[in-house]
Amino acid sequence: MTEEPSKLPRLTLARQIRDSLVGRIVSGQVRPGERLVETRLAATYGTSQAPVREALRELEAMRLVETQPRRGTFVRPFIQETLRESYVVRAALEESATRLALLAGTVPVEAMRAEVEAMRAAAQAGDSEASARASVSFHRHIVEAAHNELLKLTWEGLQIEARTSVTMVATEVDLHDIVRDHAELLAAIEGGDLETACRQARDHQWHYADLPHDAHGRMRDSATG
Amino acid sequence: MTEEPSKLPRLTLARQIRDSLVGRIVSGQVRPGERLVETRLAATYGTSQAPVREALRELEAMRLVETQPRRGTFVRPFIQETLRESYVVRAALEESATRLALLAGTVPVEAMRAEVEAMRAAAQAGDSEASARASVSFHRHIVEAAHNELLKLTWEGLQIEARTSVTMVATEVDLHDIVRDHAELLAAIEGGDLETACRQARDHQWHYADLPHDAHGRMRDSATG
DNA sequence: CGATAATCAATTATCGATAATCAGTGAGGA
DNA sequence: TCCTCACTGATTATCGATAATTGATTATCG
């Protein structure tokens, strides 16, 4: 589900700051090892220290920064490596999700087909962000179909896109290839052979692990008030 | 909270509160679904709202509570379901870890053999705690051998599920069976066939998911965390 | 000269107060 | 009667200010 721009319940300040920082970190605007000073950030965003602090705590939970009590919080080194590692972990989770969903016969084939179509449309429009969004939805369908709440929680925890408004987009990838990859994966899932589908689900993720990525997404600057 | 005579605020207030709350939650002093009101907690601990809030954020990261923005935070109702679910997630991670470790040739066979022996000794002594510890170590070896920091972090994050909802040890499980299971798994890993080993790693965990568990959901004493 | 203590500036951790928002309740109107 | 909506009490989100701690710098002394 995408967020409705209409009646935006005006997200919490901390959330906005968090998303902004996520974007800045994964896009490399703030360097690994760099210190994030609460008071300075507060000044930058035009807020008080509290929401900034809260945002930093969430970043820590996302493993984007690490905090040493009373000493400050720093952008973790090796963010890019972690991003790459996350594909492997996601692969593990999604392979299992695929297995569970197939065994339970709960794969939402129609919905997934629709996402593939969305990807196709995005590819033709050259809209890489839309493609990425559709991809996330595609994979989320599988994870949800497994009907394992903890699995889903764990998966979401790895998915920066799932938790923020930031989108990671693989650069140098033909959007049409993405469509094809997902179509093939879906075909394997529909094909009915459990092991083949699972392997495909895994390989699908592993494949992307080595590609370079870019961050996109709106990150509002200072607050309105 | 009681003022410790030692003048050293060894830890941050937020940390102390967090730890206290963890204890109360896993010990069942606060019920699943129960609401945790920041102001009330602050009063209880004799602090202001800030450190409580921060503690709650960390609990959220631990999946012990869930927060709905502007509505409050509630103790996550982790029924027995969560424990069972955790086995599946663990299976996913460990299967992948096995694959990675085998591909990299980094499996610490000796250390794992030692853990199996520890289990054997524990079995003969009827010490289920020791058996459980050895088992965790055994599996941790594999996860670490994968050399994927995120995978390890994710895996470690699962331990809390095991610790919290149930006394971990399935009822009616013969400690000698545990020894045998692990020995077989290790043999498969040493055997060299990738897919066999991976499948075994997965089944090993899935197996436990199907066992009946003691559901009293309480640890004997939450202290000495 | 080198080590230690005293001092200082920067920053985090915490506080107490206030604004914003939510859930519940009862009055008024179709 | 049922529904809408303003009102109220409770609670979260945010603020601005202060206490406490850190790391660096300088002064002191052997």
TrEMBL record, chains A, B:
Gene3D superfamilies: GntR ligand-binding domain-like, Winged helix-like DNA-binding domain superfamily/Winged helix DNA-binding domain. The keyword Transcription regulation applies. One of its GO terms (molecular function) is DNA binding. InterPro entries: GntR_C, TF_FadR/GntR_C, Tscrpt_reg_HTH_GntR, WH-like_DNA-bd_sf, WH_DNA-bd_sf. Keywords: DNA-binding, Transcription, Transcription regulation. Residues 11-78 form the HTH gntR-type domain. This is GntR family transcriptional regulator.
